[in-house]
Amino acid sequence: MVIIKRYCVALLLMCVAVVARAELVVEVTQGVEAPTAIAVVPFGNETGGALTDDVAAIVQQDLQRSGFFEPMPRDNMLGFPVRRDEIFFRDWRIAKMDYVVIGQARPVAGGEVSLRFELHDVLREQALLSEQVTVARDGLRDGAHFIADRLFERLTGLKGAFSTKIVYVTAEQLSAQRQRFRLQLADWDGARSTTILESAEPIMSPVWSMDGSKLAYVSFETGKPAIYVQYLATGRRERIQSFPGLNGAPSWSPDGNSLALVLSRDGNPEIYVLDLLTKKLQRITRHYGIDTEPSWAPDGQSLTFTSDRGGQPQIYRLDLASRKLERLTFEGNYNARGRLTQDGRFLAMVHRSSGGGNGFDIAVQDLKTGRLDILTRSGMVESPSIAPNGSVVIYATQEGTRGVLSAVSLDGRVEFRMPAGSGDVREPAWSPYLR
Amino acid sequence: MRVSKLTKSAVIAAIMAMAAGCSTTSTTTDGGAAGVGGSAQAGNGTNSYGVSGGAVSGGAVVTAEDLKQLRTVFYFDFDRAVVRQEGFTDLEAHARYLAQNPAASVRLEGHADERGTREYNIALGERRAQSVERLLVVNGASANQVETVSYGEEKPAVLGHDATSWSQNRRVELKYLSK
Q1: Quick one: CA torsion of B72, B76, B79, B81, rounded to 10 degrees?
Q2: Nearest C-alpha neighbor of B15 from the set B39, B38, B32, B34
Q3: Does residue B26 surpass a pLDDT of 70?
Q4: Hey, is A426 helix, strand or coil?
Q5: How far apart are CA A430 and CA A188, in angstroms?
Q6: Where would one find the signal peptide in this protein (chain B) (predicted)?
């Protein structure tokens, strides 16, 4: 009865989808050696009304936070051109800008807003992009992230990930005995965060399905761990059949038809694959050690997982067809929670160096060359999650006594932090490209 | 009385050996095997069975009142799931109480410190709870009187980020569901 009641409360909360105040603010704490100089000029507004968001400011922020760009502060701009013939290239050259971005918001039928934007090469006085995107009046932020994606792709050759989302868990200590856990959904930059689940018991291990339509996570709301699947569009929630012992570490197969997960129903944590259509459960590992944190390779052919079968946690890869097992990590005495980049080449993980004391950091291993690079030096990190364009790893770390989110580029050059407004923030999971 | 205690000690030593064998490599298994044989070796922790540190010792009836004197939190070393010897006497008493009161039941909540990954720590917390469960069952509790759950690092007892806090968070909490 209590369980049903709790379930209803949770459902209710999901329906309400409490819009929390933006909790995260990203700060670039370290940048590339020579970021590209770009000026994002405030957009003209011909909609006949005030706009709720400053599109150019959001674009500027996205580009700056990527670490690849150093945008010009607005106060330093000599003019705010809106059309190409209003750009005095000589002024921007003197200001040492490589590129200048201009744009304009215009009304279209149905109350929507059209955002026209242009990217100009200052030296060559040449237009590199001239496009427009139509958004709802309250969707200016989406439009801004889209524009940032287009600019980023044009200038770096990498697909932009500014329109993606993240989910993360927050924990607040309300009293000695009472805690509040929340599963939050936000833009990649932490803006527009909403609560999609709230519970007095732990919420863990959120992961996105590859099509971005749903999440899987672990909730202790019944007093025991169970895996839930939640649809983002409707808030509908399903509980996966749970077993005595651990029910944890869900991971979606790339085709979305299966979940890899960890059960200890046979007395020991083992990895299983659950076919979501037939509900058939297939046991994948068979070892008395701890086997956990399964993660599908992007091609769906293998699973990486953490096992202490060698005496310490290390990352292994199991080929699903041949059942061939391969140990991937050898450097360090603790390597766990591996996540592969979309091209399958790089493995990001939580790493502790041999003889390096207590520090846990993010490391990336090139599976082709075997080279391992340690990307962070904070010593207390976990839960790496890779941006869909493979450029950045977001992870949880500590600032003082508080859990915060931080991110680092895969080459280790750019690092930025997302301090939380309240509570302990942890377990970020980066969405795939959406729509 | 004395004999049964010795047998029990041997059983505990066997469990220690099993648990140690699971989590470490080589040598510890040998030490444990010697313990099963009954030889009280110094150094492997099997030589102090005669000492009764807890408030309730021997094979006496354990009352609900006695339970209040027993410790209910048991601590562990980093990345280990072996019950420390300091907890044996009290765990034996809990087991005896459960054996004498078939309607009583306990919940064992396993925890880990914050170091390492969350899912690995959930697994570690479960191992710890299972170690305590085995000690209870071997000492007379019935398996269906004991349930385990692991919270990993999700519910720390102490919020600090230092060695002292960590040592207090690596624990199993024994909670009576009914007495």
Answers
A1: -70
A2: B32
A3: no
A4: strand
A5: 8
A6: 1-19
Q: Is B45 exposed, middle or buried (0-12, 13-18, 19+ CB in 10 A)?
A: middle
How distant is the Cα of A164 from the closest Cα of chain B, in angstroms? Answer: 25
CA distance B126 to B115: 16
Provide the pLDDT for residue B76.
Answer: 97
CA A295 from centre of chain: 16
* C-alpha span between A310 and A64 (Å, rounded): 43
Q: For chains A and B, what is the number of CB pairs under 8 angstroms?
A: 84
d(CA A101, CA A229): 42
User: Which amino acid does the sequence have at A128?
Assistant: L
3-state secondary structure of A243: coil
Which one of A171, A293, A334 has the shortest CB-CB distance to B119?
Answer: A293
Q: How far is it, in rounded angstroms, from Cα A7 to Cα A14?
A: 10
* All structural domains of chain A: 2-23+164-430 (2.120.10.30), 34-156 (3.40.50.10070)
Conformation bin of residue A311: beta by default, left when phi > 0, alpha when psi is -120 to 50 = left
SS3 A61: helix
Closest CA of chain B from A423, distance in Å: 13
pLDDT digits (tens, 9 = 90+) for B78-88: 989 999 999 99
Q: Which residues contact A183 (CB under 8 A, 6 or more apart)?
A: A167, A168, A169, A195, A196, A197, A198, A203, A206, A215, A217
Q: Which residues of B touch A308 (CB under 8 A)?
A: 120
Structure tokens at A183: 């599963």
Contact state of A204 with B148 under an 8 Å Cβ cutoff: no
According to the CATH classification, is domain B60-179 in 3.40.50.2300?
A: no
Q: Is A182 near chain B, with CB under 8 Å?
A: no
What does the alpha-carbon distance between residue B33 and residue B13 come to, in Å, rounded to a whole number? 8
What is the DSSP code string of B97-109? Answer: HHHH-TT-EEEEE
Q: Which two tokens stand for residue A355?
A: 């003889």
For B40-77, write each residue's pLDDT tens digit. Answer: 333 333 333 333 444 445 567 889 889 999 999 999 99
State the Cα–Cα distance between residues A285 and A283, nearest whole angstrom. Answer: 6
Tokens at A316, concatenated: 């292994």
Smallest Cα distance from A315 to chain B, Å: 12
A249 interaction partners in chain B (CB closer than 8 Å): 119
Contacts of B37 (CB under 8 A, 6+ apart): none
pLDDT of residue A190: 85
Confidence label for A191 from pLDDT (cuts 50, 70 and 90): confident
Nearest to A313 by CA among A326, A329, A302: A329
The model carries a pTM of 0.83
Is A400 part of the contact surface with chain B (CB cutoff 8 Å)?
Answer: no
The residue whose two tokens read 């962070």 is: A376
CA angle A165, A169, A173 (to 5 degrees): 150
**A414, A413, A395: which is closest to A405 by C-alpha?**
A395
**Pairing, β A99-107 against β A44-45:** parallel
